[in-house]
Amino acid sequence: MPQLTIRGIAPERVIAISEALVRQLADVCGCGTDNFTFDCLQTVSAMDGKRVDTYPFVEVAWFERGMQTRDRFAETITKHLLAAGVPEVEIAFKVYSEEGYYINGMRCDAL
Amino acid sequence: MPQLTIRGIAPERVIAISEALVRQLADVCGCGTDNFTFDCLQTVSAMDGKRVDTYPFVEVAWFERGMQTRDRFAETITKHLLAAGVPEVEIAFKVYSEEGYYINGMRCDAL
Amino acid sequence: MPQLTIRGIAPERVIAISEALVRQLADVCGCGTDNFTFDCLQTVSAMDGKRVDTYPFVEVAWFERGMQTRDRFAETITKHLLAAGVPEVEIAFKVYSEEGYYINGMRCDAL
């Protein structure tokens, strides 16, 4: 964590920006780059009776780090995706609680 | 948003109902049809030592709109999926907060 | 529900452990095995400018059952995945509310 789950953006685009993006996100969070994951979901989307391109969307799963960090985090992702040619960027944050998160069987609020 | 993320239902079925469904959901929410996304996830499911069909499931990600709208929203999806031959329909609502949702870098509670 | 959504672990591994795992999880929850779903997501992951293997991750979607059950639930999944050769196991619980969950159009808090 943080874990970026991405739909509607070609994995090649995500790969291309991943190196610069993870460095800046690690700066924003003050943590190492090895805490991050960037996962692209395979989706098929529908609208108005037709198959359509999936609308670009990033869900960020993390432990809450406050509004300032969240704003900068979203700004950083947005900047990189717009620069990579994604026309619109929507990002939602999903907050996991430390008492509901386990690493190798250990609850995070007990670590 | 609202964003429907669907598993266990063939994309062709979702495509087939998408036109009528989005119109009725937009009526329920009192918003335009262009706010909606219908995304089918590619999954492989397991049970009892075998690969099995994925159980049909819809997760609706949205900003909370209250019980009455939620009931009608779920009823509308259910009706269309049952009519399309899906035998059982389970729907869960996942609530995003406006302060954790960003469009082109702008936080939604600030828009 | 509970619904396990798995990424970064080959479906074959999940299939191989699914029979023993679902029995033990049903024991932990005191419910039938037919309440569970194990769904593997298809993902493409990126890091440092390269495509990489997806980091193993399990999201458990359920109605909250309390810390003791949650601990045992996570421990059971972890034990099976480590035994199946997954090197590290991270599990997050996502809590659905009964008032936002619908089965065939009926809200779960009304059932």
Describe this entry's structure for a reader.
- 3 copies of one chain form a homotrimer.
- The first copy, chain A, is of the alpha/beta class.
- Chain A has a single domain, classed as Macrophage Migration Inhibitory Factor (2-Layer Sandwich), CATH 3.30.429.
- The first copy, chain A, has 2 helices and 8 strands; from the N terminus they run βαββββαβββ.
- Chain A has helices spanning 11-29, 67-83, and strands spanning 3-7, 37-41, 43-47, 50-52, 57-62, 90-95, 101-103, 106-107.
- The first copy, chain A, has a 4-stranded mixed sheet, covered by helices on one side. Chain A has a two-stranded antiparallel ribbon with strand order 3-4. In chain A, strands 7-8 form a two-stranded antiparallel sheet.
- In chain A, a hairpin with a 2-residue loop joins strand 7 (101-103) and strand 8.
- In chain A, helix 1 runs antiparallel to helix 2 (67-83).
- At the A-C interface, helix 1, strand 2 and strand 7 of A face strand 3, helix 2 and strand 6 of C.
- Strand 3 of chain B pairs antiparallel with strand 2 (37-41) of chain C, so a sheet runs across the interface.
- Chains A, B, C: This is DUF1904 family protein.
